[in-house]
């Protein structure tokens, strides 16, 4: 019933909030849900596959993970520009979802070649880079400004439900497939979910059809947005904080080595973080609308510092370290992933909103690339405890610098 209303409805910007949250936002959330099942099936087994299965060093994994994250950088800008220039946000997002599906198909053909796997991961992240800004722009154009936190919270809750289910599906597939071609079974199942996400987008998501300025969008329009002081400060803070954030794969590898977990149980670590994200995304989105988005984002990055300090504790620490790390890691995403674009949306003109969000996300992607490479090198040459303590110190310093940068009317 809800999905049929998405197809039949007109522009939803002026619709009541309750209807909006069961229209375009719901449809986009369902697309993200099944796509995240696909992505997290692969993502939850990938660190173990590369490090424990193919025997990559942690510094080599850091480079692959950096490529996995950073490959979205330039494509985010290209996707944002194309979506604004041709006013086809849904089409650009659909191309991105399609590329990610194609990458899952390619994983079935690569065998155990790390270079080929890295190239396909780059294709997958290229797809993510193309689709993320148009998708988020559609959300900002589908709800009133004062409800952006709730809308992104609702969307991210559905997204995180997929992130929660994906590793569980991967565990089930690994158990059923047994040894031998078990990873191929994961990749095949992941492809099926990816194709379902493309189908849902095509059938049920509506593009924004409201009036937009007729001025032609120029290629340099996104960079020109950095002339806006509040938006420039937000981009600087997001990139700085992203530079000191340890990626998911490293968090799970550290926990796996701490307790010597079997490979078949490795995806369950991602389940724990996804469950925390699922439970906290919508409440923190509502809290951001009520008390201000800035304090919620800062608290999220405070959780990053706490995670890195707990990871530095090592194997002799309390058994509560693992659940505490997973809870805080999920809380970090719940407090930042949807709230940052909710801050950025009101700072950007409607006809350049996709380009602006892409610029913000590009800075985060480049920061994530550097973070993965640097942490992988630090782990290999300094050891886990020193690397984690250094990351915690850097994150705390970045948090202190970002406090004044995040001041603004849309952050309160």
UniProtKB/TrEMBL annotation:
<dbReference type="GO" id="GO:0022857">
    <property type="term" value="F:transmembrane transporter activity"/>
</dbReference>
<dbReference type="InterPro" id="IPR020846">
    <property type="entry name" value="MFS_dom"/>
</dbReference>
<feature type="transmembrane region" description="Helical">
    <location>
        <begin position="261"/>
        <end position="284"/>
    </location>
</feature>
<feature type="transmembrane region" description="Helical">
    <location>
        <begin position="157"/>
        <end position="179"/>
    </location>
</feature>
<dbReference type="InterPro" id="IPR005829">
    <property type="entry name" value="Sugar_transporter_CS"/>
</dbReference>
<feature type="transmembrane region" description="Helical">
    <location>
        <begin position="331"/>
        <end position="350"/>
    </location>
</feature>
<dbReference type="InterPro" id="IPR011701">
    <property type="entry name" value="MFS"/>
</dbReference>
<feature type="transmembrane region" description="Helical">
    <location>
        <begin position="233"/>
        <end position="255"/>
    </location>
</feature>
<dbReference type="Pfam" id="PF07690">
    <property type="entry name" value="MFS_1"/>
</dbReference>
<protein>
    <submittedName>
        <fullName>MFS family permease</fullName>
    </submittedName>
</protein>
<feature type="transmembrane region" description="Helical">
    <location>
        <begin position="296"/>
        <end position="325"/>
    </location>
</feature>
<feature type="transmembrane region" description="Helical">
    <location>
        <begin position="384"/>
        <end position="406"/>
    </location>
</feature>
<keyword id="KW-1133">Transmembrane helix</keyword>
<feature type="domain" description="Major facilitator superfamily (MFS) profile">
    <location>
        <begin position="24"/>
        <end position="412"/>
    </location>
</feature>
<keyword id="KW-0812">Transmembrane</keyword>
<dbReference type="InterPro" id="IPR036259">
    <property type="entry name" value="MFS_trans_sf"/>
</dbReference>
<feature type="transmembrane region" description="Helical">
    <location>
        <begin position="185"/>
        <end position="205"/>
    </location>
</feature>
<dbReference type="GO" id="GO:0005886">
    <property type="term" value="C:plasma membrane"/>
</dbReference>
<keyword id="KW-0472">Membrane</keyword>
């Amino acid at each position: 019933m809800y999905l049929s209303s998405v197809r039949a409805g007109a522009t939803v910007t002026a619709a009541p909030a309750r209807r909006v949250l069961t229209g375009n936002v719901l449809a986009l959330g369902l697309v993200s849900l099944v796509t995240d099942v696909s992505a997290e099936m692969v993502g939850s087994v990938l660190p173990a596959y590369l490090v424990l299965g193919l025997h990559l060093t942690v510094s080599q994994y850091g480079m692959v993970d950096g490529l996995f994250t950073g490959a979205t950088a330039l494509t985010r800008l290209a996707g944002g520009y194309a979506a604004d220039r041709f006013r086809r946000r849904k089409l650009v997002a659909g191309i991105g979802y399609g590329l990610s599906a194609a990458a899952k198909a390619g994983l079935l053909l690569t065998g155990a070649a790390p270079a080929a796997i890295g190239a396909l991961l780059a294709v997958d992240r290229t797809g993510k880079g193309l689709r993320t800004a148009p998708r988020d722009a559609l959300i900002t154009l589908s709800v009133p400004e004062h409800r952006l936190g709730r809308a992104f919270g609702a969307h991210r809750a559905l997204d995180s439900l997929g992130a929660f289910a994906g590793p569980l599906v991967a565990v089930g597939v690994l158990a059923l497939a047994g040894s031998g071609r078990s990873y191929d079974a994961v990749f095949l199942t992941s492809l099926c979910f990816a194709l379902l996400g493309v189908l849902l987008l095509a059938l049920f998501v509506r593009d924004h059809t409201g009036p937009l300025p007729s001025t032609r969008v120029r290629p340099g329009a996104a960079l020109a947005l950095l002339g806006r002081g509040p938006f420039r400060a937000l981009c600087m803070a997001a990139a700085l904080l992203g530079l000191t954030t340890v990626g998911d794969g490293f968090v799970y590898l550290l926990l796996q080595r701490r307790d010597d977990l079997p490979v078949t149980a490795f995806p369950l670590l991602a389940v724990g973080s996804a469950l925390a994200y699922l439970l906290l995304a919508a409440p923190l989105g509502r809290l951001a609308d009520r008390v201000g988005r800035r304090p919620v984002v800062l608290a999220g990055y405070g959780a990053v510092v706490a995670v890195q300090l707990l990871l530095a504790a090592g194997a002799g620490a309390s058994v509560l370290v693992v659940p505490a790390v997973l809870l805080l890691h999920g809380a970090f995403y719940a407090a930042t992933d949807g709230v940052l674009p909710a801050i950025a949306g009101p700072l950007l003109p409607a006809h350049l909103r996709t380009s602006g969000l892409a610029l913000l996300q590009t800075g985060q992607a480049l920061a994530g690339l550097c973070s993965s490479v640097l942490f992988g090198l630090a782990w290999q040459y300094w050891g886990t405890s020193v690397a984690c303590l250094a990351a915690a110190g850097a994150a705390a310093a970045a948090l202190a610098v970002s406090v004044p940068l995040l001041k603004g009317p849309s952050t309160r």
